[in-house]
Amino acid sequence: MKVKIWGTRGSIAVSNQRYHKFGGNTTCIQVTSKLGTEIIVDSGSGIRDLGSALMMNSPVTAHLLYTHYHWDHIQGFPFFVPAFIPGNTVHIYGQDKGTESVRDILENRLMSPPNFPVPMSVMGASLKYHRLKDRGRIEIDDSMTISYAPLNHPNGVLGFRFEEGENVFTFLTDIEHTDETIPDKEPLALSQGAKAVAYDSQYTPEEYPSRVNWGHSTYVAGLNLVKAANAEKLLLIHHDPGHDDEAIEEIEEEARKMADDMDLEAEAAFEGMEFTV
User: Fold this and answer.
1) Distance of CA 118 to CAs 62, 105, 122, Å?
2) Which segments within the chain are labelled E, that is strand?
3) What sections of 161-273 are H helices per DSSP?
4) In the predicted model, what is the mean pLDDT of residues 186-207?
């Protein structure tokens, strides 16, 4: 499978010259199976550029998975061009929240007045909705299986495990550890044997004590998870909007030092990053 990062930022998008290296768009990643199936995780502001790239090969069929519906993870959906074009198909996967489905949340909360002037009814693509449970599996195509399970975050969030044979990529955004040393069972199970684990490393170990219960984690907890799961690499994601390029470079350097001591790899995600698992 191929993975490309289109949005690395958490909480809110940022834009100035100090955010050039790692990017300022909020969460959006693209996973392409070896059979060519296009999978998107979250529609943060990064999905706008992803949509433009997908339109270079029409018609578009894409599978959009939602970890959760906090603003930074859905705000780009109204600007996802493929959803407006007849002949395209977008499968949308998400959990119900109370009595509201993923469709209700996008249509009634995101794309409706006074929040947004353009209703979902003008989207010309075929939008197909799929309800996700607390945990389960999604069979995307004959080569890829996706497993998902709940993580620790206000209002709930899902983590995803992408598998093609022995090749595994795990995506764990908006997760808060309950113990920085001992991983929780759900992220541990999702990360077992992964080639790479993308993990919410929004805070430094020094920042975290003043942000307990805010729903985010540190590279220390991420590396301990990777080690316990017999995985290979930590990918730091969901960068704090207050961390500019210089700050993230310093965090990455500290993470790499710790990773070297643990015989692991660590790298901070940046917009445009591509890799094969």
Assistant:
1) 22, 15, 7
2) 2-7, 28-32, 38-41, 61-65, 89-95, 126-132, 136-139, 145-151, 157-164, 167-172, 196-200, 233-237, 265-268, 274-276
3) 185-191, 219-228, 245-261
4) 98
Length reported for the chain: 277
Q: What is the pLDDT of residues 100-138, one digit of tens each?
A: 999 999 999 999 999 999 999 999 999 999 999 999 999
Whether the full predicted model's pTM is greater than 0.85, yes or no, is yes
Closest CA to 175 of 198, 205, 152: 152
Which domains does the chain show, CATH number per domain? 2-269 (3.60.15.10)
φ and ψ at residue 136, rounded to 5 degrees: 170, -165
Task: Using alpha carbons, select from 17, 20, 105, 211 the residue that is nearest to residue 9.
Answer: 20
Q: Give the pLDDT confidence score for residue 143 in this predicted structure.
A: 95
Query: Which DSSP letter does residue 104 get?
Result: H
**Torsion, CA 55, CA 60, CA 66, CA 67, rounded to 10:** -70
Report d(CA 97, CA 68) in Å as an integer: 9
Structure tokens, 273: 């990053």
Tell me how crowded residue 56 is: count the other CB atoms within 10 A of its CB: 7
Q: Minimal CA–CA distance to 191: which of 155, 156, 147, 154?
A: 147
